Amino acid sequence: MIAPDFPANESKRLQDVYRTQLLDTPEEKEFDEIVQLASDLCNTPISLITLLDTERQWFKAKVGLEASETSREVSFCGHAILQNEIFEVPDALKDIRFSDNPLVTDGPEIRFYAGMPLVTESGSRLGTLCVIDTMPRVLTERQRFALKVLASNVIKVAELRSKNRQLHHLTENQKRIISIVAHDVRNPLASIKSVIDLKKDDFIDEQTAAEMLSLVSVQLDSTLDMVDNVVGWGQLQLKPAMMASAEINLYQLVNEIFIADGLAAKMKNNQLVNNVGANVLLYIDKQVIKFILRNLVSNSNKFTENGSITVTALQQVNKTEIMIQDTGIGMSADKAEQLFTQTGGTTTLGTNNEKGSGLGLMLVKEFIDQLKGSIHVESTPGKGTKFIISIKSLA
Fold first, then answer.
1. Which one, of 382, 322, 379, lies nearest residue 351 by Cα?
2. CA angle centred on 320, ends 315 and 325, rounded to 5°
3. Residues 263, 221 contacting (CB under 8 angstroms)
4. CB 369: neighbour CB atoms within 10 A?
5. DSSP-derived pairing of the beta strands 125-133 and 112-119
6. Would you say 127 and 77 are in contact if contact means Cβ atoms under 8 Å apart?
7. Which residue(s) pair with 325 in the sheet?
8. Rg (alpha carbons) of the chain, rounded to whole number
9. Dihedral sign, Cα of residue 326, residue 330, residue 335, residue 337
10. Distance in angstroms (rounded) separating the CA atoms of residues 331 and 38
11. Global confidence as pTM
12. What is the maximum alpha-carbon separation in the chain?
């Protein structure tokens, strides 16, 4: 027996296999119908949709076979994925690669095998659609054509399944935030309309209207910040499941954030301090970590006036800790414990009566979880708050 070689792109191929989320899933009608049709068209008692994992071949759909998987070392499909076209073995007993293979000498006693690689758009061969017989034979040209078409349909069904999963994920996330968005946008718009109606009906004078609109303006500022969070979150959600990690300089990134938030800090007479070392590097998705840090800096500015907001970093062998510390109003231990579990309820007003939905911190926690990191908060009422992020993905 000759064990199959690994493809040159084995690492990427395995990533694409796992990305389908098909391995070890229950039977599905769409795939079952394809293998049944393959057996009917090719007149074979066995047909399989096979996915090749690291050390095994696993059958997503099958006809005529009880086993759900076998060793990759003895697989015919391991040889088939190395080909560009159908891999056909007319008589396994006469083929040096398979004559003493246990799948030939014992059950299911394979004599004939034909497998068409399941090739993604990026060129990865996930496995095969194969037909098997217990007697020697060859496929006709029409059967070979049918097997190719059916293999193409396997990939299309897998891709459609993946798209449906993505749509479901987006829909669930939209449901999760739509009530927050609707509530926070509706309130200031309703307030503006009320002031206009009162003024139009001469129930209030110009000065009172101006004072009321000034209060509404503060409310609108927090709403715009919330919408900005939602837009940033949505853009990140539309990215591929695998984040686009790259090496970034954390000191430079913090400077970018400070420039963007400089005006907001100046209006509250807050000093932004970058104490990150000039050589602290992270291997991470830049937009994700920027989203996280900007939200935390903005949150600190909300609860600080005539003070400072300082970002520092401690890089260790297996992780980097990033601290965002302010000298603001702080919070109680109970409030700190509930900070990342809010779902749009009441939040504490900022030093200028800024109101928020808690959405920003909720999304920060979500992205840190995706990074396999952690975040916790230390705070003392009247003295300030410190957020500590621990991230394992280092350069």
1. 382
2. 95
3. no
4. 12
5. antiparallel
6. yes
7. 310, 386
8. 30
9. positive
10. 65
11. 0.50
12. 100
Greater pLDDT, 150 or 356: 150
If residue 321 lies in a helix (H) or strand (E), which one and from where to where? strand 320-326
Measured at the CA of 165, the angle between CA 160 and CA 167, to 5 degrees, comes to 95
Return d(Cα 107, Cα 335) in angstroms, integer.
Answer: 64
Question: In degrees, to the nearest 5, what angle opens at C-alpha 297 toward C-alphas 296 and 299?
Answer: 60
Domains defined along the chain, listed by start: 10-163 (3.30.450.40), 240-395 (3.30.565.10)
74 DSSP assignment: G
Point out which residues pair with 273 in neighbouring strands: 310
Burial class (CB in 10 A: 0-12, 13-18, 19+), 322: buried
Q: What six digits make up the tokens of 182? A: 């609707």
- Please write the tens of the pLDDT for every residue from 233-276: 555 555 544 456 788 999 999 998 888 777 678 878 899 999 99
Q: In what helix (H) or strand (E) does residue 241 lie, and over which residues does it extend?
A: none
For residue 116, give both structure tokens.
């068409």
CA distance 193 to 188: 9
Q: Do the beta carbons of residue 271 and residue 309 sit within 8 Å? A: yes
Count how many residues are written for the chain: 395
CA 39 – CA 42 distance, rounded (Å):
5
User: Which amino acid appears at position 141 of this protein?
Assistant: E
Rounded Cα distance between 266 and 253, Å, is 20
- What are the backbone angles phi and psi of residue 325, rounded to the nearest 5°? -120, 135
How far the first Cα of the chain sits from its last, in Å, is 44
- What is the 8-class DSSP label of residue 4? P
